[in-house]
Automatic annotation (TrEMBL):
A biological process term (GO) from this entry: action potential
UniProt topology in membrane: Multi-pass membrane protein
Every Ion transport domain range: 26-236
Keywords of the record: Ion channel, Ion transport, Membrane, Potassium, Potassium channel, Potassium transport, Transmembrane, Transmembrane helix, Transport, Voltage-gated channel
SUPFAM superfamilies in the record: Voltage-gated potassium channels
One cellular component term from this protein's GO annotations in UniProt: voltage-gated potassium channel complex
Protein name: Ion transporter
Gene3D superfamilies assigned to the protein according to its UniProt record, in alphabetical order: 1.10.287.70, Voltage-gated potassium channels. Chain C (1.20.120.350)
Transmembrane segments: 29-47, 53-74, 86-106, 151-173, 185-203, 210-230
Cell location: Membrane
Annotated PANTHER family: POTASSIUM VOLTAGE-GATED CHANNEL PROTEIN SHAB, VOLTAGE-GATED POTASSIUM CHANNEL
InterPro entries: Ion_trans_dom, VG_K_chnl, Volt_channel_dom_sf
Length: 288
């Protein structure tokens, strides 16, 4: 690195800039450490392994926690705006990767929350230059935002249905058949409407069985609604990147980005291109 750059600036380049060779090397090492720490947490959850190797695994985990804590402090130190980093998405995730290890001192089961470190693997998109995948993720986010109001209406409708069905089952079946309260009936309605069907509570009376059949049919009829809403919004989000220009021949509106010719009929989309290229369907002159 340039000797004229300060030590803090050199650290910032290594820690935050994955488009440099040292930065890529640092991020790759970090990803390996994250994977190893996840593997340790997963293995430690196996009872036989935990019983025989609890102490060594604890030391290994403390080592990872110490490394990640130092990394977090280094990021705070070399960041131009430490508070902005601390409250950013990655900053909060980096902090959450440390907290469970500290909480494990007071609450042993908190160590299994270390699995939150898997979220830090999102850096792999930046390290391996997988920006096209991030663009596809943006399509999904745009579709979720676009379908938010429709999904809220759908959830409100479903909530109303399960409340009504749950109350009816409580009235029809009663405590003697397991429907001890309206919330219990609502729980049954949710399980049945979503076609999960745990089977821990079942209707016994003929009226209850007829009602449960109605709930099942209703569940099948509405379960595809949010999928359709989201799919439509996803198509709209992806269509936003297309070239919006009417073809002068077939009037097709949506085309690939930077398209010069219509994908349906092959004619030029713009008059100047048509004048230069000539008609798409013109036959070559072979008289000469």
């Amino acid at each position: 690195m340039d000797s004229n750059i300060s030590w803090r600036e050199q650290l910032r380049i290594i820690v935050f800039q994955s488009d440099t060779k040292p930065g890529r090397r640092f991020d790759k090492i970090l990803l390996v450490l994250i994977l190893c720490s996840l593997l340790v947490a997963i293995i430690d959850s196996i009872e036989a392994v935990h019983r025989n190797y609890a102490a060594p695994l604890a030391w290994v985990e403390w080592t990872f926690t110490f490394i990640f804590a130092v990394e977090y402090l280094v990021r705070l130190y070399c960041s131009p705006k430490p508070l902005k980093y601390a409250f950013s998405f990655y900053g909060l995730i980096d902090l959450l990767a440390i907290v469970p290890g500290i909480l494990a001192i007071y609450y042993s089961d908190a160590q299994y929350l270390l699995i939150v470190r898997v979220v830090r693997m999102l850096r792999i998109f930046r390290v391996l230059k997988l920006s096209p995948y991030l663009k596809q993720a943006n399509y999904l986010l745009a579709a979720l935002r676009g379908s938010k109001q429709k999904i809220i209406v759908f959830l409100a409708t479903v909530s109303t249905l399960v409340t009504v069905f749950g109350t009816l089952m409580y009235v029809v079946e009663g405590p003697e058949h397991g429907f001890t309260s309206i919330p219990k009936g609502i729980y049954w309605a949710i399980v049945t409407l979503t076609t999960v069907g745990f089977g821990d509570i079942v209707p016994r009376t003929p009226i209850g069985q007829i009602l449960s059949s109605l709930v099942m049919i209703t569940g099948y009829s509405i379960i595809a609604v949010p999928t359709g809403i989201f799919t439509a919004e996803l198509a709209n989000a992806m269509r936003g990147d297309q070239l919006q220009h009417d073809c002068p021949v077939c009037a097709k509106n949506a085309h690939e980005p930077n398209a010069a010719f219509c994908s349906r009929c092959g004619n030029a989309l713009f008059p100047k291109l048509g004048a230069i290229a000539g008609p798409a369907n013109a036959e070559p002159d072979i008289s000469t």
